[in-house]
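REVIEWER CHECKLIST
Item 1: Sequence provided? yes
Item 2: Single chain? yes
Item 3: Sequence as submitted:
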Amino acid sequence: MEVKEYSLEMRGMPRRDLLEYFVSIGGKLDERGTLIGPNWMVDLSDTWLCQIGSIQVPATRVTFKVTEKDWTGILKAFRLRFLSAGG
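Item 4: Structure as written out by the authors:
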């Protein structure tokens, strides 16, 4: 199976929360800082501040390397975990 790369920009949550999530689902950090799981690999960028109007929020790019067949399930679980309501 061919491994594809997918990227998401996550705003408004600390990078450490993303790191903790991937470790909790079985990810291990390698020497380059890549999280390696049972059927996925993830790279987290450094956090930067993103300007939204007059507010600055933290943003982190999450880059997944996963087969297309596994992508839907991984994305669904990830989105559900980080679902938040604005207000």
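Item 5: Key structural point noted by reviewer: Strands lie at 3-11, 28-29, 35-36, 41-44, 48-52, 55-67.
Item 6: Recommendation: ____
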